[in-house]
Design a protein that fits this description.
alpha+beta, Alpha-Beta Plaits, two-stranded antiparallel ribbon, 2 helices, 4 strands, globular, binds iron/sulfur cluster
């Protein structure tokens, strides 16, 4: 499981940055970027995004 940010949809509003309990998201060049070493894939940021830019990836990580 992975969390993905669609950089075309992201407007850099930073709503996800505020809700992430692990401080895993930062804004880089105007778009959210997730630090996978901090993320625990709880999915809290997904509904927080007003632009639907964050989603779980289909891709399985082994
Ligand atoms: S899934 Fe959870 S820990 Fe990972 S970036 Fe989103 S809010 Fe933060």
């Amino acid at each position: 499981m992975k969390i993905l940010v669609d950089r075309d949809k992201c407007r850099g509003s930073g709503e996800c940055v505020k809700v992430c309990p692990r401080d895993a998201i930062s804004l880089l060049e105007g778009a959210a970027t997730i630090d996978e070493s901090k993320c625990d894939f709880d999915g809290i940021c997904i509904p927080a995004c007003p632009h639907g830019a964050i989603s779980f990836s289909e891709e399985e990580v082994e």
